[in-house]
Amino acid sequence: MAKTFGASVQMVYNTLQDLVNKDQQGFVTELEFNRFAPIAQLNIFNGLFDELKDAKRLSKSGFNPTRDKSRTKRIQEDLATFSTKATITKSSGVFSMTGTTGADDMARLISITTAGSILLDQSTKKPIEICYDEEKIERILISDISAPTEEFPVALVSSDIYVFPTSINKIQVRYYRLPKGTDSNGNKVPRNPQLYSVVGGNDMYTDFEIPQHYTSDLVYEIARLVGVNLRDADIINYTGQEMMTRKQAETL
């Protein structure tokens, strides 16, 4: 499992507390923080897809910087850490995304292919066209021209996945999974970010999985959810100073 050092839950909480105290806006309890931390992370994660659309639009208009400064490239790199895949075998005529398939943590679907194999260094997988409209899939199935075949299959995606033709029994789904947490060593864990939780009889914190450079966004979003009004400039400046101090301490 790849290591991802996400935003520090302790830094986000401390920064939020300091800013709230600075503006004399009360106190955010650990219980409140733990309740809103995973929601804030999910909101930022979902927002990345909207940002990506905007960035691509700017790129087409010639306003997006190129190469390493590209906004599109940065967001794609951040989202890439959440990309995964699952192989699903048909059961009772459907491909279920819950249970033992491992796809029940799906946030956004990327693609579907037949399971296939590697034959003479060539993949035998076939891309499956994705359809979300039941009326459209009905028109496809009765069409003499566009009826699905094993070479050109089609999938109807709803709560489960239905693939046509029905002779296909195994598929591979690539998707963006929901963000969870990371431990102090940067390992992904199936827990939500929170200050303290009991794991194996020990109290320990769980960091965010969203990257560190979203620390200020997390502070702002949690404050918004709690109902605290903070200024963007203060959050950006304060978190920047905190992260600089932390990096200097780590090098000592």
In short:
This protein is α+β, with helices and mostly antiparallel strands and 252 residues long. Helices cover 38% and strands 22% of the residues. The protein contains six helices and twelve strands.
Task: Report what the structure shows.
This protein is an alpha+beta fold and 252 residues long. It has two domains: 99 residues, no CATH class; 95 residues, no CATH class. Helix content is 38%, strand content 22%. It is built from six helices and twelve strands. The strands form four sheets. A four-stranded antiparallel beta sheet has the order 10-9-12-11. The chain has a three-stranded antiparallel beta sheet with strand order 1-8-2, with no helix packed on it. Strands 5-6-7 form a three-stranded mixed beta sheet, covered by helices on one side. β9 and β10 form a beta hairpin. α2 crosses α5. The longest helix is centred in the first third of the chain and has 31 residues. The protein is elongated, with a radius of gyration of 22 Å. The mean pLDDT is 84.
